[in-house]
Amino acid sequence: MRISTKGRYGLRLMTDLAIHYGKKHVTLKDISKRQAISEKYLWHLVPPLKSAGLISAGRGAHGGYSLAKPPSKITLKQIVTTLEGSLCPVECVGNPAVCKRARMCASRDVWQEIGSKIEGILAGITLEEMAERQLDKSKGAVSGASMYYI
């Protein structure tokens, strides 16, 4: 199973919004600069996240985007499934009808178990936790920077 750029960049977009939650709306231009993701690509991520009720838009001079609910109420599973669709590693896990061997296939059981573990991990991590992790990493990158003198 591989998460596409859509899922990876969407998670970075949402983490950025979580870091700025409760402040003013954030523009895609600002997120683009901070996350090193093209603004044009971010525009493609907004509609599904907005339709899923995960982000909201503000218009006007102080417009931009913000989370539609607290980051503690949004899981990574919600974000990834909104952008990627099903997390099933193989088609027969999500739709047993596609394979006439589904009921008697030991491999399918393993794939199902793997898919459940992935979903469980993503469901157990909130956007609030991701924002904290990112802030911790950012602090470490700054404080852990080495200085070289010649």
Notable features of this structure?
2 strands; Arc Repressor Mutant, subunit A; 150 residues; mainly alpha; 7 helices; 5% strand
Note down, in words, how this protein is organized.
The model has no long low-confidence stretch (mean pLDDT 90). The longest helix has 18 residues. The chain has one domain: Winged helix-like DNA-binding domain superfamily/Winged helix DNA-binding domain (Arc Repressor Mutant, subunit A, Orthogonal Bundle). 56% of the residues lie in helices and 5% in strands. With 150 residues, it is mainly α. The chain has a two-stranded antiparallel sheet with strand order 1-2. Strand 1 and strand 2 form a beta hairpin.
Unreliable stretches, pLDDT < 50, 5 or more residues? none
Task: Summarize model confidence as the mean pLDDT.
Answer: 90
Major beta sheet summary: 2 strands, antiparallel
| Overall tally of structural domains | 1
Beta-strand content estimate: 5-15%
Which CATH class? Mainly Alpha
Strands side by side in the biggest sheet = 1-2
Q: Indicate the multimeric state.
A: single chain
Structural class: mainly alpha
Which CATH architecture would you pick? Orthogonal Bundle
